[in-house]
Specification:
The chain is 38% helix and 24% strand. The chain is of the alpha/beta class and 304 residues long. The protein has one domain (2-110, 159-299): Carbamate kinase, CATH 3.40.1160. Helix 2 crosses helix 4 (73-95), helix 3 (51-62) packs across helix 4 (73-95) and helix 7 (206-216) packs parallel to helix 9. It is globular and about 50 Å long. The protein binds adenosine-5'-diphosphate (ADP) and phosphoric acid mono(formamide)ester. Residues 8-11, 49, 51, 226-228, 231-232, 235, 256-257, 260-261 line the site of adenosine-5'-diphosphate.
């Protein structure tokens, strides 16, 4: 079975945790220990988030007096692929000795005229209280939005059209390797009229990019793993109800939060609608149970 698995940014750095390298490396190891049984048995591609990390690097770059202009988000996205990819690569090698593992830098094609460039939605960096977030927004020209009870910086998140390196990823997978790729949704790039690629100031949603990749690789299943056990109907209301099974049509009748559960639900619905296969959302530590249909929110064409 070929499975494409996304590890949420929250799994790599929980809200409120210090972004120390040792903490993130330990989180990456915990994430991989949860996935190792699946990777031992199936063809596995692993993607990951980078929201907390790309925002942290943007803060560091903005504070560097040696720079005349802070590094752009495509470059920072590439840095997060290297950093997180390295932690995941090493954790996979230590957990599954004998397996071939590779972590790639790869790019995601977006449209230069995507309306998302004018309407930032992607949360990056740490959470702030309302007063601090509004002060930083006016000092630094950030867009900000509420993330639950906190506030965070938001940046443009254009829709992923294609992972540029899909063919290389496919051949690595066919050669028996576990492939870590599409980190942070992939480095966002556009293709000019002359056919040349160039980076853009954005962070692609990793769940939507994971879906594009899973479709292109003819995956049998797609798992989006995060820090909640299931998608919840009425998440912030008086009667929150976890959804264990659903059809895409049933999920599409509900409303989910932009920038967090919304893109995950869109990604699983699209994967099931396009492929007729199974997709699921749930907690990282339940990965094996989710694949066997015993945990998480499992989405299938029939909802059974
Ligand atoms: N309807 C919902 N059901 C479950 N979780 C939800 C819902 N709406 C918002 N959330 C939030 O979505 C978060 C997961 O999304 P996100 O933060 O983007 O995850 P990750 O970075 O792990 O990919 C959860 O921690 C939860 O607080
Ligand atoms: N790029 C991205 O979607 O990151 P998170 O999963 O950390 O939000």
């Amino acid at each position: 079975m070929r499975i494409v698995i996304a590890i949420g940014g929250n799994a790599l750095l929980q809200r409120g945790q210090k972004p120390d390298a040792a903490i993130q490396r330990a989180n990456a190891l915990r994430a991989i220990e949860a996935l190792a049984p699946l990777a031992a048995e199936h063809e596995v591609v692993i993607t990951h988030g980078n929201g907390p990390q790309v925002g942290m690097l943007a803060l560091e770059s903005a504070a560097d007096p040696a720079l005349s202009i802070p590094y752009p988000l495509d470059v920072l996205g590439a840095q997060t692929q290297g950093m997180i990819g390295y932690w995941l690569l090493q954790a996979l090698q230590n957990s599954l000795p004998g397996k071939q593992v590779v972590a790639l830098l790869d790019q995601t094609l977006v449209a230069a005229d995507d309306p998302a460039f004018a309407a930032p939605t992607k949360f990056v960096g740490p959470v702030y209280d309302s007063e601090t977030a509004h002060r930083l927004a006016s000092e630094r020209g950030w867009s900000i939005a509420a993330d639950g009870q906190y506030w965070r910086r938001v940046v443009p998140s254009p829709h992923p059209q294609r992972i540029v390196e899909t063919r290389v990823i496919r051949s690595l997978l066919y050669s028996g390797a576990i492939v870590v790729c599409a980190g942070g949704g992939g480095i966002p790039v556009v293709r000019g009229e002359d056919g040349r690629l160039s980076g853009v100031e954005a962070v692609v949603d990793k769940d939507l990019a994971t879906e594009v990749l899973a479709e292109a690789l003819d995956a049998d299943a797609m798992l989006l793993l995060t820090d909640v056990p299931a998608v919840v109907r009425g998440f912030s209301g008086p009667n929150p109800t976890p959804i264990s099974r659903a059809t895409p049509a049933a999920l599409r009748r509900e409303n989910f939060a932009a920038g967090s559960m919304g893109p995950k639900v869109e990604a699983v619905c699209r994967f099931v609608e396009m492929t007729g296969d199974t997709a699921a959302i749930g907690a990282l530590e339940d990965a094996a149970l989710i694949l066997s249909g015993k945990a998480g929110t499992v989405v299938t064409p029939s909802g059974t």
